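Good morning,

Attaching, inline, the backbone tokens for the sequence recovery test we're adding to the shared suite. The designed sequence is right after.
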């Protein structure tokens, strides 16, 4: 784990590492550390140790910053290597075994043919990745983490609900990663000598170590993590391709097949779109001048490329070399777990000012402990967790994104309604209708009443149209034997319909 020099950053050779100015004494992290140490009565021995750890991280050019905004003079340079870093980051993040498991759900759970499952997976990935790419563009322009950006639509208090839901998503996805990794490592160990428990703990520890050191370290890890994964998957796909069933038709009558197609499309969309709750977190050190279209296009291409995968035959793991590849695939799940673990530490702080007093390192650790314990408890129920959890969490994300997009396009841009939010100059350029300095002052943020009401209306539509093992909405149940999970689409459309008039009334009443 080598130290990244400031000179390298200026030349754009190590992207993205923390620039020297981000570690100066003017940073929010050091100001907070100094302020805490000036009041010894409020600083326990444990917190003193944590402050010493933060100071050590800063000394060695690691990130101690939490939720505080990254100012324009604290960013690294933007070069062609920055563009490459965006691409390999998302490739490493998404080229993981959980997508193989997701691809298996099409034929195994929904009874779809290879063609139907492949088309649903592709279009679900495209829709989800498009929304994620949009959110990612606000990292450079704002310097804020994703759910701080949510405050500019939902306000101070309703955003807390969004944060709690996002924490559940991040913890749930990390739980799935650990269980899959543990199962693979246990399956390929000699005579099953390694238990699933050991595999889960190993991956959890590695994830915690990388995410704790912050932005520059996990970006450096993501820069290369995709290489062994790509090699392993290419070999596994090449060997297993002869076992792909390309001829069997989808199972059920016409209405049931249509319902299963919609449900699988919905779950693949949910798998992709849930990255959106943290997408801006990973690009806050990119300069304000970073072209939004660059972030959007590269993110979209990488997510579609890496996320559109199909299952391989488990028999390919039975040979000695196959087991070696399986270990690589299992350890590759670390690359899918590190960014969520990092974002967990950030998102806990978004819950409020008291939560900001606890360093990101502590919240990182709390998050890893929580999902490790949950993974150990649910290690024998992966299929149930996957099919129920993924779709359920996708509902709120797509509703939130729909509201966010409307806020930016209809009320913040110069092409939208002239509602007096931001001056004329602030409306020019991407994301310029926002005052990024008021992120931590509730009175200068929207009340969030319109967003919350639209969010609840969207949820009502999702509940009526969701189709899960444990619940089937009355509208969803009208399609085929098992219903059609239309919750994502109906929820987002209902929220999108009611938000503009509600937001117009809110601005007229309160001015924000």
């Amino acid at each position: 784990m080598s130290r990244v020099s400031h000179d390298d950053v200026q030349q754009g050779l190590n992207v993205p590492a923390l620039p020297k100015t981000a570690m100066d004494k003017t940073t929010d992290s050091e100001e907070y550390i100094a302020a805490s140490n000036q009041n010894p009565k409020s600083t326990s021995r444990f917190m003193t140790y944590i402050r010493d750890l933060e100071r050590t991280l800063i000394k060695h050019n690691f990130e101690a910053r939490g939720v505080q905004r990254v100012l324009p003079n604290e960013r690294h340079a933007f070069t062609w290597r920055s563009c490459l870093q965006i691409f390999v980051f998302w490739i490493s993040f998404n080229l993981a075994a959980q997508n193989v498991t997701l691809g298996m759900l099409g034929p195994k759970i929904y009874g779809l043919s290879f063609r139907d499952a492949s088309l649903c997976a592709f279009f679900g990935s495209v829709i989800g990745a498009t929304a994620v790419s949009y959110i990612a563009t606000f990292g450079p322009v704002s310097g804020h983490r994703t759910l701080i950006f949510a405050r500019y639509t939902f306000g101070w208090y309703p955003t807390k609900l969004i944060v709690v839901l996002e924490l559940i998503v991040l913890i749930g996805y990390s739980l799935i990663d650990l269980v899959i990794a543990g199962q693979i490592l246990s399956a390929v160990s000699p005579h099953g000598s390694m238990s699933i428990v050991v595999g889960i703990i190993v991956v959890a520890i590695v994830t915690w170590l990388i995410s704790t050191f912050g932005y520059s370290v996990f970006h450096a890890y993501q820069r290369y993590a995709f290489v062994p994964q790509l090699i392993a998957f290419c070999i596994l796909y090449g060997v297993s391709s002869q076992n792909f069933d390309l001829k069997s038709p989808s199972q059920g009558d016409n209405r049931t097949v249509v319902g299963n197609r919609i449900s699988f499309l919905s779950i693949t969309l949910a798998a992709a779109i849930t990255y959106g709750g943290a997408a801006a977190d990973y690009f806050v050190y990119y300069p304000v001048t970073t072209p939004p279209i660059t972030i959007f296009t590269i993110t979209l291409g990488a997510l579609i490329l890496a996320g559109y995968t199909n299952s391989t035959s488990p028999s390919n793991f039975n040979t000695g070399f196959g087991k070696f590849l399986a270990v690589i695939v299992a350890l590759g799940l670390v690359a899918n777990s590190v960014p969520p673990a990092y974002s967990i530490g950030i998102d806990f702080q978004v819950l409020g000012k008291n939560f900001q007093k606890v360093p990101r390192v502590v919240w990182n650790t709390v998050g890893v402990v929580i999902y490790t314990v949950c993974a150990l408890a649910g290690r024998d129920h992966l299929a149930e967790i996957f099919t129920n959890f993924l779709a359920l969490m996708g509902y709120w994300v797509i509703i939130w994104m729909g509201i966010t997009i409307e806020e930016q396009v209809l009320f913040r841009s110069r092409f939208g309604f002239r509602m007096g939010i931001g001056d004329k100059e602030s409306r020019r350029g991407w994301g310029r209708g926002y005052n990024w300095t008021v992120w931590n002052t509730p009175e200068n943020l929207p009340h969030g009443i319109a967003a919350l009401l639209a969010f609840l209306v969207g949820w009502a539509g999702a509940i009526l149209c969701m189709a899960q093992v444990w619940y089937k909405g009355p509208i969803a149940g009208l399609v085929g034997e098992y219903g059609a999970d239309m919750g994502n689409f109906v929820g987002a459309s209902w929220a999108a319909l009611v938000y503009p008039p509600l937001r117009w009334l809110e601005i007229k009443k309160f001015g924000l």
